[in-house]
Every structure is written in structure tokens, then in C-alpha cells.
Amino acid sequence: MEKTSEISDKLKKYLKDNIVEMKNPRERRIFLRVKREAFRESLEYVINDLGFKHLSTITGVDVGTGIELLYHMVLNDAVVLTLGFSVPKEKATTRTITDLVPSAVLYEREIHEMLGVDFEGHPNLIPLILPEGWPQDVYPLRKERQFEELRKIALET
Amino acid sequence: MGYASTIKVPFGPQHPALKEPENFIFEVDGDIVVNVTPRLGYVHRGIEKGFERRTYVQNLYLAERICGICSHAHTTCYVQAVEELLNVDPPPRAKYIRTIIAELERLHSHSLWVGVAAHEAGFDTLFMYTWRDREEVMDLLEAISGNRVHYAMNTLGGVRRDMPADTFQTVKKCMDSFEKRVKEYLHIMKTEQTFLKRTTGVGVLKPEDAITTSAVGPNLRASGIKEDVRADEPYAAYGEIPFHVITAGGGDVLSRALVRSEEMLESISIIRYALDHIPEGPTRIRVPVAVPAGEAVSRVEAPRGELIHYAKSNGTSKPERYKVRAPTLANIPSLAKTLIGSHLADVPLVLAGIDPCFSCMDRMVFVDQNKDKQWIWSMEELKRHVKVERD
After folding, report:
1. Pick from B39, B306, B367: which is nearest to A151 by CB?
2. Is residue A120 within 8 angstroms of chain B, CB to CB?
3. Is the dihedral angle over the CA atoms A75, B274, B303, B56 positive or is it negative?
């Protein structure tokens, strides 16, 4: 098995200044945050050169000023690389990765409706989970949305 | 090639194959499915948002209720994430108990699936038999934990209760009889023409498609790909227990049935080994209420495949963000792929073939409440109600 530290070294060497933050809290886990403009290139490197084929899921996190997108990629013998970057809330758009990883199609739809991130080039960015008639500008997982308010909306739709 | 027009056939939300609500719109050309559009969320309860407003201890109960079949898989994934953030390691005995419960859960989940698949294949006798045998496993879980569905064994830093000494013998005895039954089912599946004709070559998922669509669990292994979180990234006591990762080459519904059945035999041997080698000692350690800031990714092999949780803490007693991805959601893209090109009549069988679990998958953000307002209670109202009931 390729060691977690070897993978981190390769990533450091390849991405250099594009790395915003890199953590290696334990064996089999790497958390890597890159600059927004370097994300696509980093993902291609991770898939094509490092052999990460399996996308476990994408997590969207409201970090106050922006939305952080975390792509959990898994290598065959189970090293989980969480590759992330942030988009500002006022212009929450990024390019879709469905052309590189087809399985991202549902995860991107989920983040689109829950956190209001637009994925440019996604084949069909329609609601996946929320009820029909849910107001378009209400993104439930954003921190400014309170549970009580969401409950009220759910009852009215 | 083909006809100029296609017809759209809606399936669900009253699902033809399962007792859970889901909607699929099939575009058919004659009898052949040419396109599939899933619509999820009918049992969406807003659990991820719910995690953010509860303490880590309260969230144990919430994680338990993500799914009614693999409740133990979800709590195991949850406690592992939080234990990693707290930097604590549960005692070895607790890890063995987690493993035993997890495998018992896999046994009852897989036998449930064999029953559903047999039913969809038009073989109801097998359905009745497997569900009868499944009851015995449910009884075991009840004997160990006091509960049939939400076993509530996991807690932060270990397990909530030890396994009573007398249950060891009961479990072993049940495993002996259950093993015979599973071997019998395997024999039936491999030889019975009713079953073979209905499942061979139906709903084929090619290995390369399984990889590009990031399929997980028995569906992935039925396409010949040897991946299993228990073996790849051992958690609980799996690192100390020998077992095989079962694969099959066909990628069809038959292969999925064989993989799940043989996995049941593996589960039985894991349980036996664990019962014989379980170390003595404490079953839990106390953990602090507040969790230091950090983030963790936790993975578990649930009966339906890879389950992943992501936790982000902020130093308080409540998580900043908690993300759950249940295996069924990961299997939807590959399911859509296998359904395209199949006969409309095979759709229920192929759908059931991935062993979907929709409540698990739909957990994300909001309540799918009944529109009838009297059903919506605040926590206070609920507490009041419970109190009245108790009085």
C-alpha cells in the first residue's frame, strides 16, 4: 500500500503554492484545501496520476463568507483524500466535475438545492430532494436559515 | 433504429418493489427502458440540519434513527467520527461487541433482501422462508440489546451495555442453524430454474461502469470488484478477524443474490470468531461533552455498502456541520445505468436488486411532513404528550 505520507508529498510537490491548507491527521486521511482556480487541475491530477477513482460524496459547508466544497475521493486501498476549495456566497458558482467523475451528478444537485451553489455545465441541475414548490432562494443548509423558519416553509409548500 | 416516440411511465412514489416511497420516471420505447429520472426526497427529514442543533450525545439518538435497517452502521460511523475528533480509542471489548452487532445486522439485512428479491422474481416460498429465519436474528438482537430495530449499543467511547454471558451460547446455537439455512438457500439459488431464469443476465452492471458511477457494497462486488471497507480500512475489530471479501463476476441480479448470500456465511464465521476471541475488560470510557475543533471523515461497510460521514466540530458541545451519505444514494447512478436497456417487466426486480433503502438516503434537510398540521409537533408538545401518556 502506498503510504499516506507519500501521497501527501506528491501532492505538495505538484501543487506547490496552490495549496491553501494541508492536514494529515492520521494514517489514511488527507485534508487538502486548494485555491479556487487550481481546483480543477488538482482534481485531474488526483484522478489521473494518483489513481483516486471513487468519489464517496461531496460535502458543502457554510463557512460564513462562503461555501466550502469538499470532495471525498477514495483510493482503492482506502486512503481518503478530502479535496476542497471555497466559493464566495454572492457568486457561488463553479464548474461541474460530472465530465471527470460521472457519479458526482446527484451530489452536485444536492448541494445546489441545499446550499445554493451553481455547477456550470451540469447536465440537469433540477431539485433532487426538497418538496415540490419549495421557494427557489431558500437554501436550508445555509447557517442563516433557522430550523423553525424551514419548518414553516415546509408546511406551506 | 427504434421508434420516433417514447412513452413516459411513472413508477412510485408508491413503489412497486418496496414499501418505501420513491419516484422514477421511465421513458420506454416499446418494452425497453431508454431513460430513467429518479425523484427522491419523499421521506426527507432534515437530519443534517438537525445534527447542528443537538449535542453530541443527543446526536447519537438521531444517528440511530437515520435508518431502520442499518441503525448500527450509522451509529458506528457517527461514534467513530466523534471519537476521532476527541482523540479517544474505545476499549477492545467494545470494539468486538460493535463488530458482533454489525454482523448480526448484516445477517438480518441481507436475509431481508433475499426475501424481497425472491418475491420480485416470483418465488414467494423462498421469501417466506428467509423472512422466518430473519426473525431468529432479530430475536438475538433483542436478547442482546433489548431492542429489535434501534439496538442503541454504541455510545461515545464504547458500547452502552456488555453482552450478557448467557447470550454467547444462544448466538452460537442460532448461527449453527442459520448457517444450514443459508447453505440451503445458496443451493436453491444456484439450481432452481424459476430463480435462475428470472435473474441471470438481468440488470447487468459492467465492472467499468461500476467504477465510473462509484457504486458501492454488494452491487460493486457483484460486478467483480473487490472492495469492502471492512477489509480495506479495518475499523472496530475487523483488523483482528480473518474473513473473505466475496465477489462474483456476472454483475446481474443473480450475482448480487449470490454475493449477499455468501456474505452471510462470512458474517456467521466472523461472529463465531469474535465470540471466541472477545477480550475481557471494560466496555466504555467516559468522554468530555465538548469536542475540540477539527474535522473527521468516517467510513463503515454498512450492509448496503460504503457509508461515509463527515463531521466538523467547533470546540463546543454541538457539531458545526455533519454530513451523511448513505450507500443507496451512491448506488442510484449505477442503477440508472443498469435500468437503461432493460425490459419494463424487469424494472421492479432490478430496482430491488440494489437493495435500496430510501429513508436512509433522503435524510438531508427538511421534513417531508404530512400536510395535515395536527401531525407536526414541536419538541415541547411531544414532551408534553409523552408526559400525559406516562401519567
Report:
1. B367
2. no
3. negative
Task: Tally the domains of chain A.
Answer: 1
Range of the domain at A101: 4-156
Query: For residues B109 and B261, is the Cβ–Cβ distance under 8 A?
Result: no
CA B134 – CA B154 distance, rounded (Å): 22
Question: Tell me: the pLDDT tens digits for A9-51?
Answer: 999 999 989 999 999 988 899 999 999 999 999 999 999 999 9
Distance set, CA A13 to CA A8, A10, A119, B348 (Å): 9, 5, 29, 50
Chain B CB within 8 Å of residue A77 CB: yes
Q: Is B367 close to A154, i.e. CB distance below 8 A?
A: yes
pLDDT digits (tens, 9 = 90+) for B322-378: 999 999 889 988 888 888 888 888 888 888 888 877 766 665 433 333 333 333 444
pTM of the model: 0.90
Cα distances (Å, whole numbers) of residue B125 to B121, B131, B188, B192, B327: 11, 10, 11, 12, 29
Domain boundaries B75-321, corresponding CATH code = 1.10.645.10
Structural contact between residues A67 and A87, judged by C-beta atoms closer than 8 angstroms: yes
CATH number of the domain at A58, please.
3.30.460.80
Cross-chain residue pair A55–B214, CB shorter than 8 Å:
yes
